[in-house]
Amino acid sequence: MTAAAQECVIALDDGRHAIVSGATSAEGTLLVWLNAGFLPHVGPFRLHVELGRQLAAQGWASARFDAPGIGDSVAAAQTTPVRTLCRDLDTLHMATGCTRFVIGGICSAADLAWATAQADSRVTGIVMLDGMARAGRGYRWGQVNLLLRFRSPLQWPGLVLKQLLARRAAADNAECALRAEDYRDWPSAGNEPEQLATLLHREVRIFVRYTGGAADYFLHPKQFFDTFGPHARDRRIDFAHWPQCDHLFYDPQDRARLASALHQWLLTLPTRNSVPS
Amino acid sequence: MIVPGAQFFSAGGRRLFGVFSPARERADAALLLCPPMLHEQIRSHRLWALLAHALAGQGISTLRFDYAGSGDSAGDSRTLDLGEAVIDAEYALAELRAATSSLPIHVLGVRLGGFVAAELARREGLPVLLWQPFEQGEQAWSELQARDLQERRSTRRFPFLRPGRTRVVAEHSVMGFALQERFANRLISARSPFDATQPYVLDADAEVDRCHRHTVDVALPMALSDWAGWIDITGPFPPSDVEHTALRMAARMRGRT
């Protein structure tokens, strides 16, 4: 039986529906792909469908669905995204028996996964693709690197001067200088290390990738370690920066690379019996 | 037989995914929606969900479905094919007929879906509506290739790309999807959606944004037409614009009943 043939539709609240790929069981973990911004549940370039079916073929079940007000869900949200997602996990638990969830996705999906993991102990893993990161020195170093990397050293002084003038103009017009943290749903700056420590204490595993498409706020691996503090180097975190990849995984080869990396990471997740309850 | 809501249904051994939105009160007609393809299908997904909901309030039952190799239907993108999509549409039509008994059925084709809808309409003798259609398949393929090149050269999409260079991607992939060569061959040789049909055409207000020279019956507001061609979502589809368009489509479909 193909992975697609194993898929089924499960009714969620507010007339919404989830599509579950793969065989589920009470002992198993259910991966949950969340909407990347306003993109529907199939994901950019069908990423969630491809991942769901490829991972199902390797024994991992997953679900994809639309949050209220996105994709097929005509009705607007009645409560906060975290509460809605926790309710959806309740429904998926009832329908599949799964009690452990790995949740995540791209951009706002990563943000929602992080926030939900803080609130719901059933979340045992997070997939953060272009999730949060603060700017700081790492970002400025990355900006300089990106600016100069393909230019002749003779052009460098002029380019740096132009950049500095542009930054001063942006600072003078601060209302126009929108930063990622202004429109993303991130926790207050400085809380990330403590939140990460809490998750690691719960044995939550975290898969982190930043792509080149996050260049408006992430340009250097140092930013990740600065944002999340000393625990960011914990062995339970699988971190990498993929600068050649874009934010939506445009190239099918990048999606295949992601599927492969995710599969390898999933194999490191503790089984139900190995985790203290 | 399909039921209201989301479901998989069988199409000659393949599993297709569809969402059936029945008329909320008295049903006057039914509509089979043949969606656009590739990135445009994903980019516009919400518009068709909103449109089907609005049409249901106007007495029109709508079945939206995904071609094999697209959306939630079975198969990876390499199975996507214009000829197979017409067969998928025939199965979807049979499901819609069974669910709506004696209601008159119309077919709506969006963008590349216009080729599918028109072919189905010709075979089945059904009235067809075309949303931002292409005149010719060759022109559609050229546009896809040009957009793909534009994306692969974009340092906004690939900030680490050396300016002036083109990002190398998987062979035979276009607009982010791996395809078989036959996709292009079938599209290039496809019969025009305007050939031997008398379509009701909904298209962009500005002539320059259209891909044909035929009369337009409904000039779409920019918010319902400017998604075509693009990958990134720039804003929501205004419900009032969708309602207004649904009203006109429903009036047309009732007029034909």
Overview of this structure, please?
The complex is a heterodimer of chains A (277) and B (257). Chain A is 38% helix and 17% strand. Chain A is built from nine helices and eight strands. In chain A, helix 2 (81-96) crosses helix 3. The radius of gyration of chain A is 20 Å and the shape is elongated. Chain B has a single domain (5-136, 192-253), classed as Alpha/Beta hydrolase fold, catalytic domain (Rossmann fold, 3-Layer(aba) Sandwich), CATH 3.40.50. Chain B has seven helices and ten strands. In chain B, the strands form two sheets. In chain B, strands 1-2-4-3-5-6-9-10 form an eight-stranded mixed beta sheet. In chain B, helix 1 packs across helix 7 (239-255) and helix 4 crosses helix 5 (181-188). Chain B is globular, with a radius of gyration of 18 Å. Chain B starts with a strand and ends with a helix. Chain A binds chain B through residues 2, 4-5, 7-9, 11, 15, 17, 19, 37-42, 44-46, 49-50, 53, 70-74, 146, 150, 212-213, 215, 243-244, 246-253, and chain B through 5-8, 15, 17, 19, 39, 42, 45-46, 49-50, 53, 70-77, 151-152, 157-163, 167, 169-170, 173, 176-178, 231-233, 236.
Topology:
The complex is a heterodimer of chains A (277) and B (257).
Chain A: E1 8-11, E2 17-21, E3 29-33, H1 47-57, E4 61-65, H2 81-96, E5 100-106, H3 108-119, E6 123-129, H4 137-148, H5 156-172, H6 180-183, H7 192-201, E7 205-211, H8 222-228, E8 237-242, H9 252-266
Parallel strand pairs in A: 3-4, 3-5, 5-6, 6-7, 7-8
Antiparallel strand pairs in A: 1-2, 2-4
Chain B: E1 5-11, E2 14-21, E3 29-34, H1 38-56, E4 60-65, H2 82-100, E5 105-110, H3 113-124, E6 128-131, H4 137-152, E7 173-174, E8 177-178, H5 181-188, E9 200-204, E10 218-220, H6 222-225, H7 239-255
Helix pairs in contact in B: 1-7, 2-3, 4-5
